[in-house]
Records
---
Amino acid sequence: MNSFLQHNYYAHVIVKFFVSFICGFLIGMERQRHNKNAGARTHLTISLSATALMILAIECFGETNSGDITRIAAAAIQGMGFLGAGVILHNVKDDQVRVEVITTAAIMWATTVVGLCIGFGKFFIGIILTLVMLIISNIDTRKKSK
């Protein structure tokens, strides 16, 4: 299958988008299941957009000119950091930042990394990061009342 994907550009792109869709969907549904900000649609959009950016970077600059590819990846990460800051600041109430919103911003940022990994063809890294984020999303750090 790997040699098939190497010789068929369109199949390779479709597989990248499919894996990115699954990872973004799983992350988003987990957040939505816990009634958190930024659910499935948001995480799908983030993951797929980051994947598209990396595919476009490879298409435009090739895999050998890594300087241009890394600049596009860095721009995606910076852009998501900017959006994450907006999510945090939007949810500041009474001059206090809620920790849940910081986690939402961090998971949005990490979803960008998942999309970039998959777009670059590093499926294993993207999938492992997705699984780790699903585990992190299920860690309950709230104090239980007696």
Note: The chain has one domain: 2-137.
---
Amino acid sequence: MNEEISKQTIVDNEHINLLSLFQLISGIFTLAWSVFMVLYFGFIIFIINLGGKFDAAKNQIDSEFPFQFMGIIIIVWIICLLIAIALGIAKIFSSKFLKQRKNRTFSIVISCIECFSFPYGTLLGVLSIIVLNRDNVKNVYHDQE
């Protein structure tokens, strides 16, 4: 019986270490995606401004592109960017907390949020929730407090 508990503890610790690594990788990719969003938005603004430089294109752009919606687009883009940055940072903190065996609730909340990122985030989120809800893992977190 003691040997089974010992083996399960080793397996649980290995699973938590793997989840910590994957959370870190996911957080880094999320932050990298945020940088890509900034570059893409800059490119779109550049193209819109470039189109206004040509007389033939200017008349066509003025009649086709509703510039009054640009403010709404910028606001939505900034909100999405801030959410992505916050989520990336939260994933990195979750990785750190998993490694330290602290803040189990925070890691579960981040795992639930990750479930919306199909397909890899869903897989990582579900596996994290499963591992963090094991009785042995709960005991490890309670012992750390």
Note: The chain has one domain: 12-144.
---
Amino acid sequence: MARADKAAAVAEITEEFRASNAAVLTEYRGLTVGQLKELRRSLGPDTTYAVVKNTLSKIAAKDAGVEGFDSLLQGPTAIAFIKGDPVTAAKGLDTFAKENPLLVIKGGIMDGNILTADDLKKLAKLESREGDQGLGYAYKVLAVHRDAGIHADQWL
């Protein structure tokens, strides 16, 4: 890779870090192009999944003010840059990793905090923003019905 190409790649990765509210590092060794395409689809429209060079990613992370996961940048690495709901992306990664054990979730960063692979599994078990909103609506409906003296079994 020529020096100008490296500088452009670092600038692109730096911008991805800055524009994302979370990033998850994975090892993709052994996955086919078709499987990677399937993984990208499963992450949703607000997540970009990119195969990266470790050295350039270290430089880009430093330039973006992201610290603490240099030790994860070993071996074949791809990063899921999450611009939307981190729970949705974590669910997509977790589900894909269960179905395709060659995908290894190394860890990540969210809101400036380093996340371990276990942290990301816990995140995947949470309700997404849409699910939270749906639950919030359901709780409001239940409260209105309760206040009106209508029991849930009467309207379910």
Note: Residues 129-147 form the longest helix (19 residues).
---
Amino acid sequence: MISTASRVGTGNIVGVSTAICLGGPGAAFWMWLMCVIGGASAFVESTLAQVYKQRYPDGDSYGGPAYYIEKALKAPVLAVVFCVCLIATYAFGFNLLCSYNLQSTFAAYSFYNPKVTPVIIGIIMAVVVGYCILGGGRRVVHVAEVIVPVMGIFYVAVAVIVIFANARNIPGVFAAIFADAFDFKAIFGGIAGSCLVFGIKRGLYSNEAGVGSAPNAAATADVPHPVKQGLVQTISVYIDTLILCTATALMCLCSGTPRGEEVSGAPYVQNAISTVFGTVGPIFITVAMLLFAFTTLLGNLYYVDNALAYLNGKKTPSEAFMRIFRIICAVVVFLGAIISMDAAWALADITMGLMCLINLPCCAALSGITVKALRDYERQKAEGKNPQFRAADIGLADEDVDFWK
């Protein structure tokens, strides 16, 4: 649920809209391609997180990239650097951006004042998030966890209605997507602002595959074989991109509403949905963004807690430290509502890129272990068994692992 909350969020709405408005319709194609690559990287990183996860005294498990970097690659310094980058990304970069994206949905309403409204929304969000992460609001969190999957289904249903209401535009939309995606003269003429770059960046922001965040949650799953969790995480990437991101892209493009830098983000999606649902459309997007943003913010901070524990000798820091840190995180949520769009996206892109530069080469270096685990899983399935994992079956000694001894 945690990894899903973080994957399925504001990026499915605002990330896709920004990519299309700034990069062109071809960005949708490059998001789809990133989904295929991302599904593979999600499988590798999550399987590795399971193989090298640690055991709590009560039998539960924990882990993530820092643990397989330290244990398998014997690179504890690099593991520390990765944790620092994760904290910078999820406590600051992504939460700043998530807060900005949420407040931007209110720009569609007549009461919106660019100098006052973001401040008010930022204060409200900071107070609610702070209340929940400081130990209160457990019922609020539980309700949100129940509502968000339902909202995701409703969002796809609404998008499908808009798409079929403009069914005559579907062939032209796909033609535009592929024509723009393979317009290499335009791509290489201004690669930084091309559909290829925006498709890759926003696709990565949306599904987070290969970034190294989801493995922190994947390591906690109780499964008999690491590959099972790797496959689950792969499916979640496909759901995120092929269903939710595609729904946003086709809804916006089929609606025929004008796109451009001035409407990039939530306004473009709100304009698209209002072509069918009128004034109710923008309200629906605002409600969806409120729920997605809330669970994304909390899910992001779960990853941060895991990184802090690793940096503190693999144990949770003191209660006083965590209280101060969480207050800082709540302040970050407030600041995100009042910074500019360019600053929000730039910070998120930089910090996310640093995580990828560490995690992906590590996954490539350890891919042989993942392949062995997959073959072991397939062999047992072929024999009609419910696959059970033993480290020795893939050539790992007891001292190489912790949970699977």
Note: Residues 58 and 403 are 12 Å apart (CA to CA).
